[in-house]
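Duplicate of earlier report; TonB-linked SusC/RagA family outer membrane protein input re-posted below.
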Amino acid sequence: MNKKLLSALRCVLALLILFLFAAASTGQLYAQTNKADLTGVILDAKNIPIPGATVKNESTAKVTVSDGNGRYRIAASNGEKLVFSFVGYTTKTITVGTQTQLNIMLAEDADKNLNEVVVVGYGSQKRSDVTGSVVSVPKSRLSQLPVTNVLQSIEGAVAGVNITTTSSVPGSQPAALIRGQNSINANSGPYVVVDGVPLSKTGGSLNDINPNDIASVEILKDASATAIYGTNGSNGVILITTKRGTSGKPVIRYSGYAGTDELAHILEPRNGEAYVQKYADYLKQTGQTQTRPVPNIGELPAYTAGTTTDWVKEATQQGIIQDHNLSVSGGSPDVNYFISGDYLDQKGVIKGYQFKRIGLRSNLDVNVTSFLTLGTSLFLTSNNYDGGRANLLLATAMSPYGQLYNANGTYTIYPMNPEQLYVNPLLGLTTNQLSRTTNINGNGYAEIKFPGVLTGLKYRLNAGYTFFPERRASYTGRLANDMIGTASNFNASTNSYTLENILTYSKDIEKHHFDFTALYSAQERKYSSTTAGASGFINDELGSDNIGAGATQTSGSYRDRYGLNSQMGRLFYSYDSRYLLTLTARRDGSSVFGANTSKYGVFPSAAIGWNISNESFMKNVSLVNNLKLRVSYGKTGNEAIPVYRTITTDGTARSPFNGISTIGVLAGNLGNTSLQWETTKTTNIGLDFAVLNSRISGSVEAYQNKTSGLLLLRSLPIITGYNNVYDNIGKTSNRGLEVTLNTRNVDGTDFRWETMIVFATNRNKITDLYGDGRDDLGNRWFLGRPISVIYDYKMTGIWQTGEDVSTQDPTARPGSLKFADLNGDQKITGDGDRMILGQTTPKWTGGITNTVHYKNLNLSVFIQTAQGMTKNNVDLTYGDETGRRNTPAEIGYWTPENSSNTRPALSYNNTLGYGYASNASYTRIKDVTLSYVFSQTMLDKLHLGSLTVYASGRNLHTFTDWVGWDPENNYSPRGSGDWTNNYPLTRTFILGLNISLR
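Output:
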């Protein structure tokens, strides 16, 4: 690891020298062409430089902008007036004297949130003019947290946005859900747009975006905000804007961190003594005679020697993570640039898991003429997930007396020989696994501003292209218990393009303000893949590099295409900044729909806003700084199903016939040529407020979504040859309440304390399925209930010795689970004794962030909670494996002596398939960050622009009643799911620094 770190640091140093050379050259050019009489630094109240602030000489009308370190240079003579301004700060005017250096401190504007410009989709607006539900992710969450994916910064910090980390596999992406689940089978994930061009549906993900490159994140939640994206906005929209250059001398920034990963909670298996006792109790409970102290002969040598193996310790390691980011930005009044490079290296806590990411980004803006601006946003990201992986699930099943190694140093195949149900959990480390993706993304724009009588009219062309190749290869050989060797190769590529023609017109007529936006766009995605496989290799030397050497060959290929054409119009009207109106309509045509439909859908929305605080009767109400009421209503569509589901297709299968391998045809997909849009109608009411000189501010929102024509997979009788078919049937309802509260509790000069609280509740339910008023028991869909529920028997305890089972469950015996006889027929069956035990999504979520500043020292503590969710706990049941495997130490079992009323006897077989529904609610200390910002005086001595050092911890502690690895994880039992995602929550400790050079 030290060699890798040294290599990475060498690369960073080389880049740093290169950028320094470029900066020095550019700086000389800048100095030669921009001579100035007056220089200085523009600071905020915390002595932090303000980049991008405007400095205007009122006498000469010359304007300049502060660089990334807050420094400016402008020609000014004695007696002339300079105006210093920046969004969110009070403008200051200074009369120049005889000085040659002038440092300026700008005070924060009490109404800065109202004047803040936010991205709203195909444009931007002042926050005070926004009529839809648009939430900006706090800048501190984006700039002060060392995360590998920006969704990790959002988790728990934005009301109505539920981010869950079901697996902590390095390089994995959390799942996101905005305002609950509207659809049952169709995709419910949000649409992601980066710098105005879609990232979703291009093959890539937010894992390809370096968090250090992100300047702002806005989340669009209601129909008024999302309807502008039509079908793509049906589940909410995440808008990401990356950093761009500003006029001034080049600014070189380095941000880096390194730290450790460890399992946040270990579900420890039983030690040797407890394992032996469990085996003895199992034999006793099942009426068997014990002939040896351990289940298998292969365990006896270690038992006799008194040596044990900690299999979880053998399968895990110290996780290490490091990230290095280097950027240079700057420009002139006509050319601005931002260039960055990033290297991330994460060594997982489970052996074999790792993730490496190398990213490059180049953002460029050029004012070609007074009316033409060109720009690009280019990035390349290479992701590496290579490596065979240890199996944590098997590690928890191993006997502590199992044999880890053979005499020759190789891993034993069956550590508990002759038991062959469980193989060595480390066998995956002997396999050759390759998994890599590359995202090559090129976006460009051209913007024309029309002069004269057409002032306010702009045309913008956005063009984006993405090439996303993937490659996976694997080889499993003799050391991994494959005696003939098996190899596979998978290659795929996704090619996507987006073209957007955007026409905007802005006009002010006295107190009337108009903004009009029109759009015509086209999107296309083409995907193709090829696979090759073989088995029967003479040796394991070449692995997957020579698949042709295998005796048995397999191959396959696939190709598909997706297209979307759209037209959109949006009108925003404001009267005297008091009365606001937004009207939007979008028409989308998608290739996923059937031949018997038009493929097009129209999605309108309307929103009104009333800035109550701008009314004349509020002028004397000093208590209230801002009060705005918002109401919106609109319709969005959802097309989030796979392509070609409207076409009936057949599959192929090989079968032997007369000694020859013959290809046959079997039923594949049953198409529905009448398939069309799933539609959601949304009502949203919001109130934004700020009181007590904006010491307390926030918003309260209530919404209701009604979805109809669900893209539902309805089951079919198996006699048809098909399992299911997509159809437009069913309805759902979704409603909720969201609260965001920001307070400045203490606002002193040296000491400040701020708090942010978010709260969101959501209730979804199925209101109709097949039009017959009946539930779908097979799919666990119930009318009037949430979409995802736990439907099972109601456990009331454990049957104890001497209790009479005849009147409730005649098949039970002491140590069996006790269930409620709901239908009173004196037996427990699936027909009438199951009920809805809870929902799998939280009923409410919340978060609280406390940030304390003392001079240059800052401490931020974020606590997240999710309450009211129920999940089946696979750690509490192992099917018929009881007695043959190890079990967690904290999960007990019933014996006549301890008479447990929560855990069954070891002899209990769970023939009813009870899932052990458990309360999965939790409260988590999500992250704590302590940072120190060096003062300008110290920076001047160090000849630096800025310097911040910090220490951060994530997932420090979880408060929960859940018994298992973690309530948020989706842990798969053996024989189902993907065991490679059985990677529990990790706790991370980080040390980092952010530095910029003058």
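DSSP finds ten helices and 48 strands in the chain.

Merging into the original ticket.
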